[in-house]
Design a protein that fits this description.
Layout: H1 6-33, H2 39-63, H3 69-97, E1 134-135, E2 138-139, H4 140-160
Antiparallel strand pairs: 1-2
Helix pairs in contact: 1-2, 1-3, 1-4, 2-3, 3-4
Length: about 160
């Protein structure tokens, strides 16, 4: 079977692969290095999960011919939107970390408390408004924003690109 819309498949797979790589990375930070995620970090993970399902799952099903041609573009768009949402949440989270934006009161500022029975001794725990880790001045939320939005932009351009008939 000849692929009629290879750009939709490529766009979906790009988003799903980037989201999978991001999730592997954060789990390495969490379980390998003991950096516990804050609430806003978890918010960023949910859209990556959606992007993995639509991007990788849908992309593989497209490659195998199980997805009708009429659905392929919609599946790719869903993966693009999901990864873009994670990037937008990353911008918000980075803004909270830099104190440019107010964050949720339950995980930022002086009112933050991890709970009476919480025992975080094996982990380096930080509230939402403190970056747990930075490289070149950019936090994980910032890198998520940069990489997720760049991936969404590239995938959208790929999806909009006309294929030779």
């Amino acid at each position: 079977m000849i692929e009629k819309n290879p750009n939709a498949t490529a766009a979906a797979l790009l988003c799903g692969s980037m989201s999978a790589a991001a999730m592997i990375g954060v789990y390495i930070f969490q379980y390998g290095f003991g950096y516990m995620p804050c609430e806003m970090c978890i918010w960023q993970r949910w859209p990556h999960g959606v992007s993995i399902v639509f991007g990788l799952g849908g992309g593989v099903l497209m490659l195998l011919g199980f997805i009708p041609q009429s659905w392929r573009r919609c599946i790719a768009i869903a993966a693009i939107i999901a990864i873009a949402i994670s990037g937008l949440i990353g911008i918000y989270h980075a803004g909270v970390e830099w104190k440019f934006l107010p964050g949720p009161t339950r995980c930022t500022g002086a009112s933050f408390t991890p709970g009476p029975t919480a025992d975080f001794k094996p982990f380096h725990f930080v509230p939402c408004d403190e970056a747990a880790w930075r490289l070149l001045g950019i936090s994980l939320a910032g890198y998520n924003a940069l990489l997720s939005l760049a991936t969404a932009f590239i995938a959208a351009r790929l999806l909009l690109k006309r294929t030779a008939s």
